[in-house]
C-alpha cells in the first residue's frame, strides 16, 4: 500500500517538474510568440522590401520573426518583449490544475499502460485507444475553457503595442476593464475556434496514429517520429482557426487594434473567418522565417500598415 502511494506521489512530483520546465520554455520563447500574435493580428510595422520567390517571381518580402522581435525590443526594450507573459503563465497553471481536477472527478486519471502491445487483443487495443482519447479530450477542453480568460488578457496586453495604450497593465486591472466594457462574454472571446482547432487536432492526430500503428507501422522508433509528424501536419492544417481566435479575442475591445479602420468589429468568429478568408489572410503568421506579401499595403504616418481592403467597414 505504501509502495503504491509512493509511486503515485513520485508520478505527481515528476508531472509538476515537467510542467515547470514547460513554463520555463514558454517564458523563454515568449518574445517570439508575442511577435507571432501581432502578425496574426495583421500588424506589419516594418515595410516590405522587393525580393524574389524560390521560383523567381517578384514578391515583397516581410521581416522574419527575429527581425520582428528585434523591432519590438528597439521600441520597448528587453522587458517590453515579455508583455503579456504573466497572464499567459497564470493561465497555464490554471489549465493544469483545473484539467487534472476534472479528470480526477470523472475517474479518468488512472490509465494503465500496457507493457507490450503485442499481448493485447484488438478489442483491448481499441478500448485503450478510446479511453486515452477521452482522457485527452477532457484534459484539453477543461484546460482551455478555464484558462481562456487569461489568454484573452495576454493577447490584449500584446495588442496594446499597436496603439500604444495602457488599458491592460495588470491581470486585476484587465479583468476589471473586460468586465466593465464587455461583461462575462468578453473573457471568452475567440474561445470557440480555439477549442475546435485543439480538439480537432487531438482527435485527428490520435485516430491517424492509431490506424497507422495498427495496420502499417510496427517499429516503435518509427511510431515515435510518426506521432510528431502527424501532430505537426494537422496543426498546420488547422492553423487558420488559431488566427481567427486571436483576432476575435481583440475585435470589439477598446484597443486601437480591435477597432476600425485597423480591424472590423466582428459579429462572431464565423464573421471573422469569412472576412479573413475573403482577403486570403487566414494563414497570417503561419510562416515565421520566410514571409512575403503579394501587394504592397499603404502605410500611414504611425508606421502601421493597416489591414488591406478595410475601408469598406468604415
Instruction: Give the overall silhouette.
Output: globular
Helical content (DSSP H or I, runs of 4+): 55-70%
Q: End-to-end span in angstroms?
A: 69 Å
SSE pattern:
HHEEHHHHHHHHE
Describe this structure in words.
With 314 residues, the protein is mainly alpha-helical. It contains 10 helices and 3 strands. The chain has a 3-stranded antiparallel β-sheet with strand order 1-2-3, with no helix packed on it. α7 (191-215) packs antiparallel against α8 (220-237) and α9 (239-250) packs across α10. The termini are far apart.
Short description:
By secondary structure, the chain is mainly alpha-helical. The protein contains ten helices and three strands, in the order ααββααααααααβ.
Structural topology:
Layout: H1 2-28, H2 30-40, E1 49-52, E2 58-62, H3 65-80, H4 85-105, H5 122-163, H6 171-182, H7 191-215, H8 220-237, H9 239-250, H10 269-278, E3 291-293
Helix pairs in contact: 1-4, 2-3, 4-5, 5-7, 7-8, 7-9, 9-10
What descriptive keywords fit this protein?
3 strands, 4% strand, single chain, 314 residues, mainly alpha
Amino acid at each position: 500500500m505504501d509502495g503504491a502511494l509512493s509511486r503515485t506521489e513520485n508520478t505527481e512530483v515528476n508531472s509538476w517538474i515537467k510542467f515547470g520546465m514547460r513554463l520555463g520554455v514558454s517564458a523563454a520563447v515568449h518574445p517570439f510568440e508575442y511577435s507571432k500574435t501581432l502578425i496574426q493580428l495583421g500588424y506589419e510595422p516594418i515595410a516590405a522590401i522587393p525580393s524574389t520567390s524560390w521560383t523567381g517571381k517578384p514578391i515583397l518580402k516581410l521581416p522574419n520573426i527575429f527581425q520582428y522581435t528585434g523591432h519590438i525590443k528597439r521600441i520597448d526594450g528587453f522587458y517590453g518583449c515579455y508583455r503579456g507573459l504573466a497572464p499567459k503563465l497564470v493561465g497555464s497553471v490554471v489549465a493544469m490544475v483545473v484539467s487534472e481536477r476534472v479528470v480526477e472527478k470523472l475517474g479518468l486519471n488512472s490509465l494503465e499502460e500496457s507493457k507490450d502491445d503485442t499481448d493485447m487483443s484488438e478489442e483491448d487495443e481499441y478500448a485503450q485507444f478510446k479511453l486515452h482519447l477521452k482522457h485527452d479530450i477532457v484534459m484539453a477542453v477543461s484546460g482551455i475553457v478555464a484558462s481562456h480568460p487569461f489568454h484573452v488578457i495576454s493577447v490584449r496586453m500584446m495588442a496594446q503595442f499597436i496603439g500604444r495604450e495602457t488599458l491592460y497593465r495588470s491581470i486585476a486591472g484587465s479583468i476589471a476593464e473586460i468586465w466593465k466594457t464587455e461583461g462575462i462574454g468578453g473573457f471568452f472571446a475567440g474561445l470557440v475556434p480555439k477549442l475546435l482547432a485543439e480538439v480537432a487536432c487531438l482527435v485527428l492526430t490520435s485516430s491517424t496514429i492509431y490506424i497507422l500503428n495498427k495496420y502499417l507501422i510496427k517499429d516503435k522508433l518509427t511510431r515515435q517520429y510518426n506521432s510528431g509528424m502527424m501532430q505537426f501536419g494537422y496543426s498546420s492544417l488547422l492553423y487558420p482557426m488559431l488566427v481567427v481566435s486571436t483576432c476575435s479575442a481583440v475585435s470589439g475591445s477598446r484597443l486601437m487594434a480591435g477597432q476600425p479602420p485597423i480591424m472590423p468589429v466582428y459579429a462572431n468568429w464565423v464573421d471573422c473567418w469569412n472576412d479573413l478568408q475573403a482577403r486570403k489572410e487566414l494563414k497570417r503568421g503561419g510562416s515565421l522565417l520566410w514571409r512575403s506579401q503579394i501587394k504592397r499595403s499603404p502605410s500611414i504616418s504611425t508606421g502601421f500598415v493597416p489591414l488591406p481592403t478595410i475601408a469598406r467597414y468604415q
